[in-house]
Amino acid sequence: MSAKVVVSKRRNVNRQAIFLITLWPFPEDFFLSDPELKSKVPLEYLSHKEKYEEAVRKACLLFRKVIQLQNEGKGGMDNFREVLGGQLGSAILPDGNPITLHYVMFIPTLMGQGTIEQQAEWIQKAWNCDIIGTYAQTELGHGTFIRGLETVAKYDPKTEEFVLHSPTLTAYKWWPGGLGHSANYAVVVAQLYTQGKCHGIHPFVVQLRDEETHEPLPGIKIGEIGCKLGMNSTNNGYLGFDNVRIPRNYMLMKNSQVLPDGTYVKSPSSKLTYGTMIFVRVVLVQDAATYLKKASIIATRYSAIRHQSQIKPDQPEPQILDYVTQQYKLFPNIASCFAFQYAATWLWDTYNNITEELETGQLDNLPELHATACVLKAVSTADAAQGVEMLRLACGGHGYMTASNLPSTYGLVTAMCTYEGENTVLLLQTARFLVKMWQNKTNVYKLPTMKYLATALNRATPFEKSVEWVIAALQKTAAGKIDLANRHLNERVAKGQSYEDAWNNTSIELVSAAEVHGRTIIVEQFYNTVQGYKSRVSKELGTVLEQLLQLYAVNAALRCTGDFLRFTEVLGKDITVLQTWLEELLSQIRPNAVGLVDSFDMRDEILSSALGCYDGNVYERLFNEAQKSPLNAEPVNKSYNLYLKPFIKAQL
Ligand SMILES: CCCCCCCCCCCCCCCCCC(=O)SCCNC(=O)CCNC(=O)[C@H](O)C(C)(C)COP(=O)(O)OP(=O)(O)OC[C@H]1O[C@@H](n2cnc3c(N)ncnc32)[C@H](O)[C@@H]1OP(=O)(O)O
Ligand SMILES: Cc1cc2nc3c(=O)[nH]c(=O)nc-3n(C[C@H](O)[C@H](O)[C@H](O)COP(=O)(O)OP(=O)(O)OC[C@H]3O[C@@H](n4cnc5c(N)ncnc54)[C@H](O)[C@@H]3O)c2cc1C
After folding, report:
1. Is the pLDDT of residue 284 over 60?
2. Which atom of ligand 2 lies closest to the CA of 96?
3. Which atom of ligand 2 is the closest one to the Cα of 428?
4. Fewer Cβ neighbours under 10 Å: the N or C end of the chain?
5. pLDDT for residue 24
6. CA–CA separation, 168 vs 412, rounded Å?
7. Is the CB of 415 under 6 A from ligand 2?
8. b/e per residue, 444-476, with b = 16+ CB within 10 A?
9. 491-528 pLDDT per residue, tens
10. Across 10-15, average pLDDT
């Protein structure tokens, strides 16, 4: 394979940003019409081993095709984004892609953490897929608390090498995607020791397997971690080191360095090592939107086909879409798809702007970027996971069928709540930043996502039925919750608790404050986007977008009525108005519901669902899928004669 990648020498180029610029229409058909990218047998009927082998076959073909497009000058890095993301990627590899981490974390870490020379050495090889990498950070004993990682990289100045070692079982790397049997290299995050001192965690490039035979190298203990709730083809692995030596320049040294004599040169910020995690958290908001769109299309189309019960006696069974409770399950999730999509776009732009600043050595906005990426990743993935599950339930029994593709979509989306930072932990990171800003009010005024904190608490928010009011009320609630949590924190400290104990004892309130702050950002971005669109789209489209915005906002408000009653001037009677407003919106959106999900523009092959196809032939498809069960290949299964018959005939 040969893909030309030019490594720019300009320091201020945001190299990770080039991933996500869409320059041309993506040729889905080039992938979806390739018979080799279709599985002959539904994946669920394959063994664990066969699933993995099939996933590797498809993944290689998939990326070969992407590289072919690139070599023909048809699109660039944006093609990688399409095949890695939840839309095309999860259609072709519904149980996960064993090479994803190579593109999503290995290459971005080389780009973000390597010196120009290291990039020149590694990136071309990685882009050409001469080597396949993963990102090995989490260990059996620690995923969240990365300062507590146990893998050691000790510098030996005599040989100018690092010696990597796993001193305990809990030091084994555990979880990295593709680590089991796919990758032959990894970025390994380990505690750096030089001149007898530990300098904390740093990234190292480590070869794991022979480039020809793929046999594990001496001192490398490696394997796959086993079956999971979902993502069973991602080949998550474990990895232990027995005094494995790597050259000095295999430590990624853009931010901190170890000189040949072992002298440690400090990074301008130790948190720059965490850069790849920010990048992935940012792109996950988009992925959360994609998975929720997928489930929303399936459940909404199915709800238009499915007839059940009666609303009035003697009348035909209605489409289940006409039940208001069903609309309540579906439409707020459709609105969330728009909300997360707009938040993702805004966050991506913010990320680009701030990483460009970082490249010039300006770190002022890094804390806000971190806090914002954490909260948006946490809120969007949690809501998407809950939403997909609700949409699955909204399809009744058929939603429980693998053929609906909802169980496997849930398996993919719920993993996002844990990986790349467990959601509660991320909300606590945001809370840490909010409290800091709250305590030091002068900074609050400068930061775009925090500006509201300067005035929100003292601003009057008399109730009115408008999105502007919902935003003001959410802001006031977030400010009120931060203020209260901060007061409780201080009270606990005043009573003699250490700050850390007081923090832990206040953490339920802190998490809740951060969550409302995240929802405030999302509603505000939705509002800003719709205001921007209004003059550019037809009146009819403007009206529908406005309805979706209102639905998202009023639903967000109704989710925190208790907090509104505590922190704003809202009264019980106003909640009734909010409830009626929600019900009005459900009925306004009803005629456009199917059109709205059609607008997400996902082909049947991408939905991969017997319930969600464009033509609505739900029952035929379910029946056809049932015929694919290997049990139906023979009229009588051998277990009848072996077990059932003797059991039935026996005199018990
Ligand atoms: C071609 C590609 C295109 C892409 C296409 C799209 C396709 C998408 C497909 C997606 C598939 C993704 C598959 C990914 C699989 C998952 C991979 C993983 O999980 S990998 C494994 C992922 N693992 C995880 O995510 C582990 C989660 N754990 C952690 O990140 C950390 O342990 C921690 C943040 C919780 C604490 O860290 P700790 O060092 O204990 O820090 P303290 O709490 O003591 O705070 C100290 C100070 O540091 C500050 N600060 C902190 N972080 C940052 C930051 N990033 N920055 C800046 N600052 C930061 C903090 O604010 C505070 O400031 P101050 O108040 O003092 O001023
Ligand atoms: C599908 C999948 C793929 C993954 N891929 C990779 C990969 O490619 N590379 C990689 O390195 N890792 C990977 N991971 C690991 C992932 O990043 C970690 O699982 C994640 O960071 C959470 O860490 P943990 O598992 O240690 O959870 P824990 O931290 O043990 O969480 C358990 C509970 O403890 C709570 N908790 C922990 N710390 C705190 C705290 N400070 N305050 C309050 N509560 C706390 C959490 O909220 C949670 O409820 C993957 C994980 C999954 C599920």
Report:
1. yes
2. 1
3. 42
4. C
5. 56
6. 31
7. yes
8. beebebbebbbebbeeebebeeebebbbbbbbb
9. 999 999 999 999 999 999 999 999 999 999 999 999 99
10. 33
DSSP β-ladder status, 152-156 and 185-194: parallel
Q: 625: closest CA among 617, 614, 634?
A: 617
Extract the tokens encoding 274: 């965490």
CA of 143 relative to ligand 2 center, distance in Å: 4
Establish whether 138 is an annotated binding residue.
yes
Q: What is the residue extent of each domain of the chain?
A: 15-97, 131-267, 277-595
**Which residue has its alpha carbon closest to ligand 1 atom 51?**
271
* pLDDT reading at 80 higher than 70: yes
Residue 420 has pLDDT above 70, yes or no: yes
Determine contact, residues 177/163, Cβ cutoff 8 Å.
no
Query: In this structure, which ligand is nearest to the CA of 89?
Result: 1
Under the banding of pLDDT at 50, 70 and 90, the label for residue 86 is confident
Residue nearest to atom 2 of ligand 2 (CA): 419
417 CA distance to ligand 2 middle (Å): 9
- The response to whether residue 283 sits with its C-beta less than 6 Å from ligand 1 reads yes
3-state SS of 417-450 is: CCCCCCHHHHHHHHHHHHHHHHHCHHHHCCCCCC
- Fold of the 131-267 domain: Butyryl-CoA Dehydrogenase, subunit A; domain 2 (2.40.110)
pLDDT tops 50 at residue 265: yes
The angle at the Cα of 425, spanning 420 to 428, to the nearest 5 degrees, equals 130
pLDDT score for 441: 81
Q: Are the beta carbons of 518 and 375 closer than 8 angstroms? A: yes
Q: Which atom of ligand 2 sits closest to the CA of residue 136?
A: 11
Cβ neighbour number for residue 539 with a 10 Å cutoff: 7
192-223 pLDDT tens trace:
999 999 999 999 999 999 999 999 999 999 99
User: CA 261, 264, 266 angle in degrees (round to 5)?
Assistant: 155
What fold is seen in the domain 277-595?
Butyryl-CoA Dehydrogenase, subunit A; domain 3 (1.20.140)
The pLDDT, as a whole number, for residue 442 is 73
| Residue 212 CB coordination number (10 Å) | 7
Place of tokens 């100045």: 157
ipTM value > 0.95: yes
* Cβ(444)–Cβ(453) below 8 Å: yes
Judge whether 226 is annotated as a binding position. Answer: no
Q: What one-character DSSP code corresponds to residue 36?
A: G
**Cβ contact 59:88 at 8 Å:** no
